[in-house]
Structure formats: C-alpha cells, structure tokens
Amino acid sequence: MREDYNGYELRTAWDDGALGFGFSVHDKNGAEVSRSVDPYFHEENALTAARAVADALPEQE
Asked: Cα(35)–Cα(48) distance, rounded to whole angstroms?
C-alpha cells in the first residue's frame, strides 16, 4: 500500500521472512528516511505506525 501523508510517502508491504507487514517512510525526493524494525500482524497497524513516525519528522511541503 502507498499513502501520501504530511508530505511523506508511506509504503507498507508484506515481508515473507518476518511473517508480517513492514513500512517505510520516504521524503519528497523518494529517499527512505525511516523503516520499521518489527513486523506487524495487520497492514493497517503498520500504516498507523508509519503515520506516527511521519508525525515525529519535520513536515514536508
């Protein structure tokens, strides 16, 4: 899943190795600025965690 949020691009994806969903947060230039460490059972939980990370970062325009 992909979502634009506070100027960041949030991506969630299933990780076969971790047996759960992970997320990554990318800036407006597409550079990864954060990534999940632990897997999430539900994709919505990974997305909620990604939003919390984006909220803690400086807002992008």
From this structure: 13
The rounded distance, in Å, linking the Cα atoms of 14 and 58 is 27
Q: Is residue 10 part of a domain?
A: yes
Domain that holds residue 44: 2-56
Answer for the pair 9, 26: CB distance below 8 angstroms, yes or no.
Answer: yes
What are the backbone dihedrals phi and psi of residue 19, each rounded to the nearest 5 degrees, phi first?
55, 45
What is the pTM for the complete model shown? 0.91
Q: Tell me, yes or no, whether 26 lies in a domain.
A: yes
Q: Within 13 Å, how many C-alpha atoms sit on residue 38's CB side?
A: 5
**Could you read off the pLDDT of 32-59 as tens digits, one per residue?**
999 999 999 999 999 999 999 999 999 7
